[in-house]
Design brief:
There is one protein chain. By secondary structure, the chain is an all-alpha fold. It has three helices and no strands.
Length: 61
C-alpha cells in the first residue's frame, strides 16, 4: 500500500493545493488523514487474514 497512488491520495493532494493552510498544517503536524487511511488499510488487511485463517482452521477440525 505504501507509495500506491489512490483516489484518496489524489484528493488529499488536491485539497493541499486548494487550501494553503492545510498544506502548512500538514508540514507542521504531519498528514493525520493519510496516516489514518494507512492504519485503517493495514487493520483491514490483518482482519481479512485473520478471518481467512480462522475459516481454514475451523474447517479442518
Amino acid at each position: 500500500m505504501n507509495g500506491e497512488v489512490t483516489q484518496q491520495n489524489i484528493t488529499a493532494t488536491q485539497h493541499q493545493a486548494d487550501a494553503p493552510i492545510y498544506a502548512k498544517l500538514v508540514k507542521e503536524r504531519g498528514d493525520v488523514l493519510e496516516d489514518t487511511r494507512r492504519v485503517a488499510a493495514r487493520v483491514l488487511h490483518q482482519a481479512e487474514q485473520a478471518v481467512g485463517l480462522s475459516s481454514v482452521h475451523s474447517g479442518s477440525r
